[in-house]
Amino acid sequence: MKPFSFRNDVLPLKNKLYRLALRITVNNAEAEDIVQDTLIKIWNRRESLGEIESIEAFALTMCRNLALDRIKKLGNQNDSLDEYGIDHPDNASNPYEDMIQKDRIQLVRRLVDNLPEKQKSCMQLRDFEGKPYKEIAEILDMTEEQVKVNIFRARQTIKQKFKEFDNYGL
Prior knowledge:
Distance between the termini: 55 Å
Helix content: 55-70%
Strand content: under 5%
Number of helices: 8
Shape: elongated
Low-confidence stretches: 78-90
Number of strands: 0
């Protein structure tokens, strides 16, 4: 049983939990509520957390489950990330290039938002959060092989759809 400190072990995870919840719910307020609920649930179980091998995996799994429950409850009628002003084009030299880059960023976001939930979650944790396959497998309760397959399929789908749009116009 290893020592556990809520302040040192759990609170630093709040930004990762928020990004995961935001990616699933696509709603700032819902993501904040989910993170708060996750932290409260972990606090309530603080006496038994010394037995858990990875607090981070446990917290991310709990956050993911709460986010998925919230989506089911709300009927998945949330907005897209594009409406929250997250796109910031890099180093474009003129307004035309700015516009093209913004359009491409919005297209990729729409494509990621339209992926099946497992693929979207795997891609979020691997490509945006930088988690190793083993940890993703623990968080999503699947095998490493399933994680790799989901990530491969997600990337292939986005690549194919992006090429279709790029070749035929937005």
